[in-house]
Amino acid sequence: MPISSSAATLEKKKQFKLHCHAKSIDQNDRQSGKNLLKIASALPAKDKRCLFIRSHSTLNASAITKVQHNVPAFSDSVTVRTHSDGSLHVSRLQEEKETQPDRISLDRKGLVAVPVIDGEHKLRLLSLQHNLVSNLESLGKQSFPTLVFLDLYDNQLEKIHCLGKLENLRVLLLGKNRIKQIEGLKTLPKLEVLDLHGNQISQVDGLNSSTELKVLNLAGNQLKVVNNQDFQGLHSLQELNLRRNKLKKLLGFAEVPNLVKLFVSNNDIHW
């Protein structure tokens, strides 16, 4: 049945009001949108892993950033070649050196030893994560006077050695190796962060000369006792991680007056 003219007029007025209302809402949304905070993407356009973001590490990342502020991502544009004498050498294009003159990543290269790094006199940060490095003899034959950050996470090291030429090193990351004893640190007077989580260490020793040490991570080892003299000399220590050991007794905390963070979960301690 045809709609009367009056009914048609009412219908048009109704549609007009709805249209105006929707337009008003749209304008209000746009106006309020101008006042909202702009949320940037959580990840950068080029997803390069930052130095202190490492898988399976229990080291507090904030501790690293306190030592090395605003560390940008590594670049992995490097070439590893075997010379005629069998030694491995690393080289980079001049353009790459100019872009990032102070840092090199050799992560996941299948390396069994530290290669010779040619022409990198400004090197400050070196990463060798997720390789098969079993000794540091080659590192001990090279000079890195400006190196402050060395990451050897997830390798096959059984001992700490050949660090004598790294007198300015401040951060040493040795998590997830096969280290059984804390040693070879007397030549690192400026060391502030030491990560030894996930090794096979059964005794706290060899740290007395590390007077500048602020962060020590010994989580996931085989410690049963911490004795009175184990932390002697560590007057600067602020954070200590002893999680996931076999500890039954904790002593020696009179030696660490500046300690503010202590982690001891997953042990056999009975308070």
From TrEMBL:
<dbReference type="Pfam" id="PF13855">
    <property type="entry name" value="LRR_8"/>
</dbReference>
<dbReference type="InterPro" id="IPR025875">
    <property type="entry name" value="Leu-rich_rpt_4"/>
</dbReference>
<dbReference type="Pfam" id="PF12799">
    <property type="entry name" value="LRR_4"/>
</dbReference>
<dbReference type="InterPro" id="IPR003591">
    <property type="entry name" value="Leu-rich_rpt_typical-subtyp"/>
</dbReference>
<keyword id="KW-0433">Leucine-rich repeat</keyword>
<dbReference type="InterPro" id="IPR050576">
    <property type="entry name" value="Cilia_flagella_integrity"/>
</dbReference>
<protein>
    <recommendedName>
        <fullName>Dynein axonemal assembly factor 1 homolog</fullName>
    </recommendedName>
</protein>
<dbReference type="InterPro" id="IPR032675">
    <property type="entry name" value="LRR_dom_sf"/>
</dbReference>
<dbReference type="InterPro" id="IPR001611">
    <property type="entry name" value="Leu-rich_rpt"/>
</dbReference>
<keyword id="KW-0677">Repeat</keyword>
<comment type="function">
    <text>Cilium-specific protein required for cilia structures.</text>
</comment>
